[in-house]
Specification:
heterodimer, A: GMP Synthetase, Chain A, domain 3, four-stranded mixed sheet
């Protein structure tokens, strides 16, 4: 089935191509070009002509109406008024999307339906059974108009499901409640206990706190070292090879949905539009949906100006809180038609064969694989010291740490974009959590918690690294806040989760998702203690650092910082970004002035405005793609 | 949460069996070496190195108070780590040695199955590992030298691999290994820049940035770690270069050659000593010499880039040793030269080409093996010789006899004032560090000023220039220490007992009172 799902033209009817030729909508050369592509890559002729820009959507559907001898109508308020609400109440949005049909009226056993897919193999049978109709009469509408009708009729339900769908499915997996009652009680009890302990024996309390923090740091550093070595060892391993990609038959490729959630990014949207046009994937099998917010006319105009192919769809997400990227993506999923799905941000430049690599990756990983994460990196790495450090961090994360996690089949926290999903599993999992500001990391953990695999593919999407400190802080504080949210969500039933995913996965989750923010918060305190001692040589802190705690603290100070720098040095090798290596020496400062500051901001926001999405400004880099 | 399925992590049963077999072998070999050590100890033999490590571990675990700093910061810390874990130097050395022997055996077996080495060479090497007295002495008694050997061989492996395949994992590991080299033997750090520069030069020709990156990556760990070590010296001892100023004392006390070959520490003397070392031990070093001839001889086939720096490693280490210490190098480190030659033989097997050369190599290895049985036994005054003699029954008692005799003369539980710079075997052999007043304690200097009030016994060593008691009482080596009378001389140690007999309860009481007041 192609994106539109139109079947082969039936015998006896005038062919679509000849209709369009006759109408003067296309030239013979254009028809030949389209037929050639159809022969090589498959796809439906009409949609190929549309994606090549030879015809408009209206032209296509008008021709199809003639081909199928159907009435063709455009969306209008009168059409909406004609629709019998009692009939639409018998259908859910998912069924509409599957069967491409909206019932309009039912009289004397004849069901009149609006469709953008007049000869769908299952629609007829479905409608007969659901509505007990003897005969089905079709009225043709464009796919966009069908979408508009759905939005009009089911608008409230759509937005409600987009926002609260996960919560309805399983409240325990939603960050809607930042803290559950049990967690509040536990935290209150813990706080009270800590106060009492501090009151009666401040020394042992502080020793315990310091010991715990030092131990977490020690374990985290050691763990990351092991993962990095595992990732580095297979540096030249290609999960998906070039030969495997070339062996794919375009005709058998599945429909691929690409969601592009954008908000106030008119300067950069053209970047992604240009990149997607170059994707090595049959255009007829690409279901590209740009998700725009209702109040963002500027980006809509900029997107149109970038001249996207006609088969792309623009969906306006109704204005509703929380105004977040995951909410928009959830909204888009309702309209997705692909078997596979991915997300890109407005400024992304994915490698052209990324979708095909994902297809191969899913074939290799099997049915239990829910998601594949591509690597992220930056095209403006050399712009300034912030972008250099950011690039080092990302390179280390995606080129060494995630492959290490993949080797050991441990939970992989997903990145912000270029996550490739099996749509069915994505829907089973409840898609994204709109209340979680790192919905990607949350989804990766949720997949693991439900027994699915998350893997990686050897393909890169290039983005714009934040080149301004303030902008970087906003972005990073959001990520850390999201990690805190994810940590809270998946520790609502820690024993149950432990039993479900096993001790190793559980520990990995705790270290990555919980340990990271904790260490960012503790780092400035540790440095403050060290600097205080360095300048004063005071022995006032000695009682709080008994020998073992002192030794581990020294180890963390020396070896921990060494590892932070050295692992960042390692990060330059896979991509050959050797000019960045000296910047790795600044890693401790990057932690202190970057991560730690962001972490405190994140902690504050976790209590004051947990769902607030710190918008990252894009298009500010001086380096243009 | 939705339907939940736990996923087992991928450790296959084959891998589990392999690890189990490896562990079993390590256990067997380790137990064997432990029994060897215990047998030797019963016959009054243990290497000074073992005793030194054992004493330091004892001070850490049972010192006054027990803490890590008691072991001092003059010696490289990595070997101490194993002894601290096991709290027993015999067991620690034996199991580390056991692990290295096992890994070496398995590597050789793998080499045999993949036809990197022939069966005759495999047999010779296996005998070298398991039967050669030098090898047994190294792996059973010389923990730092054994670890050094293991680290260098691993470094060779990763360097060759990186040079061929350019996988950053190997470069990264080499960097970490070089840091551990410094933490095992300070002089070993001299080889690291050599490797870094060769690698950098190789890549720098076509890609200068990469060359610089490789240089930085290979040098950064050892630089950082050495600065960290300076920092720790400063934190705990107030002097960041303490380990350098006390270096000589360490090597004096743990050298396996008891007689000192005093020499000026400069390049010229170092080169002379190196040449002398070579000529003295030529039969064992034949494979190494042969490899050197191969490397420097002009040939049609290009040699691997890392062959020359790897070949030079033992020489550089030897030179560094002679330039920084005044003692001869331990004989067991001859095996470093042999192992280096074997490494080059394996990694450069394709470049070596014809079987004639390989045959000659095997022959020189066989000669080296035979000489390894004879040479240690002929070197008078060395621990290797004593080791062989005690092992074969040629001698009934080893190097610990004087210490035992001294300890037999100490009849009471009273405190003993002593500098453990060279007399550490006594502390280890009593297994009672609290009995001794040692330099690591804050009270040492105070008690040294008026020992008659605090201790019953004083032990002085006349061979160590750093013995603080001898420094305070220079006539102790001729039987004169105020308020103390000489009981006897035991080897190079002098045992004194407090002359104020009726007051001996008094000085112990004063010590206990003083300790209690703290």
């Amino acid at each position: 089935m192609s994106v539109s799902g139109f079947p082969s033209e039936q015998k006896g009817r005038q062919q679509l191509g000849s209709i369009l030729l006759e109408q003067g909508k296309i030239t013979k050369k254009q028809l030949e070009d389209a037929l050639k592509i159809q022969k090589e890559k498959g796809g439906r002729l009409g949609w190929l002509l549309l994606s090549l820009g030879y015809i408009s959507r209206l032209d296509l559907f008008a021709a199809l109406a003639r081909h199928f001898s159907l009435t063709f109508v455009l969306y209008s308020p009168e059409l909406v008024n004609l629709i019998d609400a009692r009939l639409t109440a018998k259908l859910n949005i998912s069924e509409i999307n599957t069967y491409h049909v909206i019932p309009i009226s039912f009289k004397d056993g004849v069901l009149k339906v609006a469709t953008d897919y007049p000869n769908h193999p299952d629609t007829d049978e479905f409608c007969r059974q659901r509505f007990h109709a003897k005969k089905i009469e079709y009225i043709l509408v464009t796919d966009l108009d069908l979408m508009k009708l759905v939005q009009k009729i089911y608008g409230q339900e759509l937005i409600d499901q987009s926002i609260n769908g996960l919560f309805y499915r399983n409240p325990q997996e939603s960050a809607y409640s930042v803290f559950t009652k049990r967690q509040v009680v536990f935290l209150a009890f813990f706080f009270y206990l800590s106060l009492a302990w501090f009151y009666y024996d401040a020394t042992s309390f502080l020793i315990t706190v310091f010991s715990f923090c030092q131990l977490v740091f020690f374990v985290t550093v050691s763990y990351k070292l092991v993962l990095s070595l595992a990732g580095a060892r297979h540096e030249q391993r290609h999960i998906v090879t070039k030969d495997e990609v070339e062996a794919l038959d375009d005709k058998t490729l599945p429909v691929y949905t690409v969601l592009v959630p954008v908000y106030k990014e008119p300067e950069v949207i053209h970047v992604l539009v240009d990149s997607l046009k170059k994707m090595d994937y049959p255009q007829g099998k690409l279901d590209i949906i740009l998700l725009l917010e209702e109040d963002d006319r500027m980006t809509l105009e900029a997107a149109k100006k970038a001249s996207p192919p006609g088969n792309w769809r623009f969906i306006i997400v109704p204005d509703a809180l929380p105004k977040t990227k995951p909410k928009a993506c959830n909204y888009g999923v309702f309209f997705s038609r692909g078997e596979l799905l991915t997300i890109y941000d407005a400024e992304d430049i994915p490698e052209t064969d990324q979708l095909k690599k994902a297809v191969v990756g899913f074939q290799k990983h099997g049915e239990s694989c829910a998601c594949l994460q591509a690597a992220l990196n930056y095209f403006n790495a050399n712009e300034n010291i912030i972008t250099k450090l950011f690039t080092l961090e990302y390179s280390y994360w995606f080129d060494y740490l995630l492959p290490g996690l993949d080797r050991f089949q441990l939970p992989i926290p997903l990145g912000g974009t270029s996550n490739h999903f099996r749509v069915k599993i994505l829907k089973d999992l409840g898609a994204w959590d709109p209340y979680n500001v790192t919905e990607d990391a949350d989804l990766g953990i949720r997949a693991c918690a439900n027994g699915y695999k998350v893997g990686i593919i050897n393909s890169t999407t290039f983005e714009e690294a934040n080149s301004r400190y303030g902008n970087w802080l906003r972005q990073r504080s959001r990520w850390i806040k999201g990690y805190m949210q994810t940590f809270l969500v998946y520790n609502r039933h820690p024993i149950k989760m432990l039993r479900t995913i096993g001790i190793v996965n559980w520990l990995s989750f705790q270290l990555f998702i919980g340990g990271a923010p904790l260490l960012f918060l503790v780092t400035p305190i540790a440095w403050a203690i060290f600097i205080y001692w360095l300048f004063t040589h005071s022995t006032s802190l000695d009682p709080f650092f008994p020998p073992l705690v002192l030794y581990i603290g020294l180890f963390n100070l020396l070896i921990g910082n060494f590892m932070g720098i050295y692992l960042n040095m390692l990060a330059v090798y896979r991509r050959g970004m050797f000019q960045l290596l000296p910047s790795a020496l600044l890693n401790p400062l990057y932690w202190l002035l970057g991560h730690s500051v962001s972490a405190y901001k994140a902690l504050w926001q976790l209590f004051s405005k947990p769902f607030y999405w710190e918008k990252t400004e894009h298009g500010i880099s001086k380096i243009k793609t | 949460m939705g339907s939940a399925r736990s996923r087992p992590n991928p450790i296959s049963s084959k891998a589990l069996r392999r690890y189990a077999l490896l562990s079993l072998m390590v256990l067997l070999v380790g137990c064997g070496l432990t029994m060897l050590n215990l047998f030797l100890y019963e016959h009054d033999f243990a290497s000074r190195c073992l005793l030194y490590l054992g004493e330091k571990a004892l001070l850490v675990h049972d010192g006054k108070p027990p803490r890590l700093e008691n072991m001092g910061f003059s010696s490289p810390p990595f070997p101490h780590f194993f002894v601290l874990l096991a709290n027993n130097p015999f067991v620690a050395t034996a199991f580390v040695g056991g692990m290295m022997i096992t890994v070496a055996m398995l590597s050789l077996y793998r080499g045999l199955t993949k036809r990197y080495i022939s069966m005759p060479l495999f047999s010779v090497l296996l005998c070298y590992l398991l039967l050669s007295p030098l090898s047994l002495f190294l792996f059973a008694q010389q923990l730092p030298d054994g670890i050094l050997m293991g680290l260098l061989l691993l470094s060779y492996y990763h360097l060759f691999k990186y040079s061929e395949q350019e996988i950053s994992y190997d470069l990264f590991l080499f960097g970490l290994l070089s840091a551990f080299l410094f933490l095992t033997k300070f002089q070993a750090v001299a080889v690291v820049p050599m490797f870094g520069i060769v690698l950098a030069a190789k890549y720098g020709r076509r890609h200068p940035l990469k060359g610089l990156a490789v240089l930085l990556t290979s040098l950064f760990p050892v630089i950082f770690i050495s600065l960290s070590w300076c920092y720790l010296n400063w934190v705990f001892l107030g002097d960041p270069l303490y380990f350098l100023t006390h270096w000589n004392a360490l090597t004096d006390t743990t050298s396996s050659i008891s007689s000192l070959d005093l020499q000026p520490r400069d390049l010229e003397a170092g080169i002379k000593a190196t040449i002398h070392f070579f000529t003295q031990n030529m039969p064992i070093l034949l494979p190494y010499v042969l490899t050197g001839i191969w490397i420097f001889a002009p040939q049609d086939r290009p040699k691997k880039d890392m062959a020359l720096p790897v070949f030079l490693t033992p020489m550089v280490f030897l030179l560094a040793h002679y330039m920084t210490t005044s003692t001869a190098m331990n004989q067991d480190l001859l095996l470093l030269f042999v192992a280096t030659a074997v490494s080059i033989r394996i990694y450069c097997r394709e470049q070596m080409g014809d079987s004639l050369f390989k045959g000659i190599f095997t022959l020189t290895m066989a000669i080296s093996l035979v000489m390894s049985f004879w040479l240690p036994c002929s070197h008078n005054g060395s621990e290797e010789q004593l080791f062989c003699q005690v092992l074969t029954g040629e001698r009934k008692h080893g190097n610990l006899t004087p210490y035992r005799r001294l300890l037999d003369r100490i009849r009471s539980q009273d405190h003993i004032l002593m500098d453990d710079t060279s007399n550490y075997p006594l502390v280890f052999m009593t297994q009672e560090p609290k009995k001794f007043i040692l330099p690591y304690e804050y009270e040492f200097e105070m008690i040294l000023a008026a020992p008659q009030h605090f201790v019953r016994y004083i032990i002085v060593s006349d061979t160590s220039s750093q013995d603080r008691i001898l420094g305070r009482y220079p006539l102790a080596s001729v039987g004169i220490v105020p308020d103390f009378s000489l009981i006897g001389q035991f080897g190079n140690m002098y045992l004194y007992e407090a002359s104020i007999q009726k007051g001996h309860g008094l000085h112990n009481t004063r010590l206990h009172e003083y300790m209690a007041s703290k």
